[in-house]
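Incident log, structure service

09:12 report received: a user says their structure output differs between two submissions of the same chain.
09:20 pulled the input from the user's history:
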Amino acid sequence: MIVCKFGGSSLSDASQIKRACDLVLENPDRKIMVVSAPGVRNKVFPDRKVTDVLLSIIKESESGRDGLEDRRLIAERLHDIAEGLGLSETIANELSIEIDRLASQLDPQSRSTRDALIAMGEVSSARIIAAYLQKEGHRARYVDPRQAGLKLVYRAGVTEILPETYANLAPLAMTDEIIVFPGFFGVTSEGDTITFSRGGSDITGAILAAAVHARLYENWTDRDGVLAVNPELIEDAAPLTEMSYREMRELAYIGFSIIHHEALEPVMRLNIPIHIRNTNDPSSPGTRIIAERTHIDRIITGIAASDNFCSVNMRRILINQEVGILSRILAIFAELGINVHHVPTGIDSVSIVVREEQFPLEIELALRQRLERELDLTQVTVVRQLSIIMLVGEGIRDTVGVMARATAAMAKEQISVEMVVLDYFEISMLFIMQHYEKRRAVSALYREFFENE
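09:34 re-ran on a clean worker, output below:
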């Protein structure tokens, strides 16, 4: 069995939905179709993703407005899709009524009412696609994640998969129909709708692939596959035909957006390969993500970059000899709700790297006060507007001099590196620098490891 997930760009209008359905139908092993909400249309300017319009309705509600214009836009969009697929207006009307009902029930104090409305983007795609396949004479049915038992829980700011989810979804492996399954959301043990973070349909697809023990998880998007570098930073970056799970997880964490980094964990446990493919060019080889690579033709597989980090730097003589000091520092960060990304240390210093979005000035003030009051740490400096650049490759571990080449390439361009973090397992190396150096640093590293090899 193959589980195939289609992103919003692959389902943005009726013609794209027809193309996606044709791809599913051409291979009888493609039995489960995970779908996102309709994305931006190529021929409509300006245009918005349906999920963004639903979020706008929520924002309007929080400001005391009814969001009628956004609701009208979604209703019009759904009617256009249904009409383009030759469906009656009934299904679009039903979905629009449901969206209106959920919008009227929004409660600022209730996450579940918000999530139930946001999930309607994926619900709309799935119900329309199932109806279209049935109209065309194919055995297909819509399956709601809440009824199927995709159980999730929200802990410490993260949506987690409950273990029983896999057993709940396993019976779908016995289907002889095409299952159309909306991505991005599930249900809590209390019966409330709960969503993943944006891009979470990738996670839904991975969960289903693991639950039914699929032989392959296909992720259909609007790109030919994964590139070695974000094309916004390097034009005509080298395409990647193969990656390991480890490489993709590292790169996705720091900025590769083609697949959600949390989507890898469910399939990694069962060694299910992922194939990134282009809906608009299915003949393209795409990128395969597998457990272990058998052929490594480059030292570096990819270069990722991300902005909006900051470092909290604490200094005290011989701090490294204080037993338990690091755990006490990290406990304060955790109690303030600050997620820690990296912890470079020295003999007399400890640095904590965090996302700026989790570290506004009021949190910084509270942190400084607690560090001084509880740990007598008075020498604390904060450096904001940092960028992280990460080199990732399975070839690093077997190659001498990778760090030397990387630092020399950046030194040649007079780029100052603030901190360096190395992976013990020798699959990645990370450079932290001022944000304005990011683009030049990526270019220098790409020339060194891709153009000069």
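09:41 both user submissions now match this output. Likely a transient worker issue. Closing.
09:42 reviewer note: The chain has a mean pLDDT of 94. Residues 75 and 96 are 5 Å apart (CA to CA).
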